[in-house]
Every structure is written in C-alpha cells, then in structure tokens.
Write a structure and sequence with these properties.
- By secondary structure, this protein is mainly alpha-helical.
- It has a single domain, classed as Arc Repressor Mutant, subunit A.
- It is built from five helices and four strands.
- Helix 1 packs across helix 3.
- The longest helix has 12 residues, at 13-24.
- The radius of gyration is 15 Å and the shape is globular.
- The mean pLDDT is 87.
Amino acid sequence: MSKESEPEAELPDYAERVLEVTELIPRGRVMTYGDVAEWLQEGGPRQVGRVMALYGGAVPWWRVVRADGALLPGHELRALAHYREENTPLRDASRASDGHLPRLDMKRARWDGRAPTEAHT
C-alpha cells in the first residue's frame, strides 16, 4: 500500500472518490471492492482494487476487502492487527486454510453505507 507518485501530484478524480468512501467506513466494519464501486456508481471491483493498491496507504485500506472475507495477500498480518484492534468480526480459520489465518465474518463486518442509527430503523 504505497503511494508511488510525488506528493504534489494530484490524485485522479476516481481515486480521490474511492479514498473518500474508504474514510467513511466505520472502525470495525468493511466494504468490498465491489461495494465501493457500487456506492460510487462507477467502475468495478478491479478499478477500486487498483486505486487501493496505488494510493490506499494514506487511508484505512484494511477496511476495503475481498468479498470472500480472505485477508489481503501480502498484508495479512498487518490487516489482522488492525481488525483485532478495531474488534472487526472474524471467523476462525479452518485447519485446512493456508497459514490458519482467520477470515472476516462478512455477514457481521460488512457495512452497507448507512449511518449506525439508520441500520436499526
């Protein structure tokens, strides 16, 4: 999650919008790449993933995830530390899973974009 461009370089508009949505996701909750694209009504999961790979280091990147709840390859332990600190719902890893890493509990962790008070009305 590094930003390769110079500090003065402006972000592309789409990237800026993706990062803005990422910053809205509450602690302990996640959105999928597809959720972010749907929220923006533009692009798709791959475009959101590309933005996060290039520019996501300055935002809570661990809150934008794969739909299957698997932790981001190459960043699993860093992400897991954030999830544990934020009490993000996790599912125990099966003994057959690689590295026995947990997955996100997508039913409980996924944020639908509504404010917390709206979710219960």
